[in-house]
Write a structure and sequence with these properties.
Helix content: 25-40%
CATH architecture of the largest domain: 3-Layer(aba) Sandwich
Strand content: 15-25%
Number of domains: 2
Radius of gyration: 21 Å
Distance between the termini: 49 Å
Low-confidence stretches: none
Shape: globular
CATH topology of the largest domain: Rossmann fold
Mean pLDDT: 96
Structural class: alpha/beta
């Protein structure tokens, strides 16, 4: 019987991208023992997943390195899949005695530990990150092209989310447009000033008390929130301080009618929950819609054009022109399409 460990100890969106391979591994090996190793907060993405037997965590601190090794060793894993090169995880898997270890590329520590490898071929042709992750599952026998993202919310959590909304003046029948303006530097993004203008435009184009704008980004600045208050609209509700952990955010996102965000973790969470989304993407290969875009067919990826990228982005890509490359009107038009 295969005992398979999936290791993804980086960001929220990256962990969302392994949810298709979890499902496809279970389909291919129904009797296998399947576990994940993530950071403690990203474990919330895997909770309630019916295809996973165990969710293990690593806080990435020096003092817990051997603790994690001992825990991994206790499970007698036969296979370890490391989706992104990570020296710490490569050595942990080695010392845990996992016989078949598969990573990406040929880093020195991967060679030293005798790790097998799949190649991303310098991202040619460019594919979605979830599909690159699936390559490791394909390496051990999975045969699929299905990279549909999945996060599972219980009925109890749905009720809890509705309670949070109701306590903040948001009714179930309201049309709920979520604006998640933050990215924590994980993806090119608009300025808060442009998001402020977007919110004002939504209020103007979609009048009436039934349409609510819900803010969820915890990294919103005090100045931005002050400017939001100056708009003096009861239709704008800031829930960022009501969401105490990632699981709270997940279950509240599950109640959205439309979710607007840069290409960052919360957008991919919404995508996995089959919410209608509008994703704001840079044109650069590692940030574009092909590699990081929305997968569910009812959503819209907005990407800076090649022409605008050449005009507004620096040649060394240190300066991103996403601010000028996508307009507020494009987002408004996308909302109209999704409401139809």
């Amino acid at each position: 019987m295969k005992r398979i460990l999936l290791v993804r100890t980086d960001r929220v969106g990256d962990v969302v991208f392994i949810t298709p391979m979890i499902r496809e591994l279970r389909k291919a090996f129904p009797d296998a023992f399947i576990a994940t190793l993530t950071q403690p907060h990203t474990k919330n993405i895997i909770i309630n997943n019916p295809y996973v037997d165990e969710t293990l965590t690593d806080d990435l601190s020096k003092k817990t390195f051997w603790k994690v090794v001992r825990e991994l060793r206790s499970y007698n894993f036969t296979h370890g899949l490391l989706m992104m090169p990570t020296e710490r995880a490569a050595f942990q898997m080695f010392w845990a005695g996992i016989n078949t270890r598969i990573g990406v590329g040929h880093k020195l520590y991967e060679v030293i530990t005798g790790m097998k490898s799949v190649s991303r071929n310098n991202y040619q042709p460019l594919r979605h990150e979830a599909d690159y992750c699936m390559d490791l599952a394909r390496k051990i026998g999975v045969d699929t092209t299905d990279i549909t993202l999945q996060i599972f919310i219980t009925e109890k959590e749905k009720t809890e989310a509705l309670t949070i909304l109701n306590q903040n003046g948001i009714k179930k029948e309201d049309f709920k447009i979520y604006v998640h303006s933050g990215s924590l530097g994980s993806a090119p993004n608009w300025s808060e000033d442009k998001y402020l203008k977007l919110i004002a435009a939504i209020l103007e184009r979609f009048p009436g008390n039934r349409t609510k704008i819900i803010l969820t980004a915890q990294e919103m600045s005090k100045e931005f929130l002050s400017n939001i208050q100056d708009i003096k609209s009861t239709r704008i509700i800031n829930l960022s301080e009501k969401l105490f952990d990632l699981r709270d955010l997940i279950k509240v996102i599950g109640q959205a009618d439309i979710f607007i965000s840069p290409s960052t973790g919360p957008l991919h969470i919404a995508d996995s929950l089959k919410i209608k989304c509008i994703g704001i993407h840079c044109h650069r290969p590692m940030s574009c819609a092909i590699h990081q875009g929305l997968i569910n067919k009812q959503s819209i990826n907005l990407e800076v054009s090649d022409e605008n990228c050449k005009q507004y982005c620096s040649a060394d890509q240190e300066t991103c022109g996403i601010e000028k490359g996508l307009t507020i009107e494009e987002v408004i038009d996308s909302i109209i399409k999704l409401k139809e």
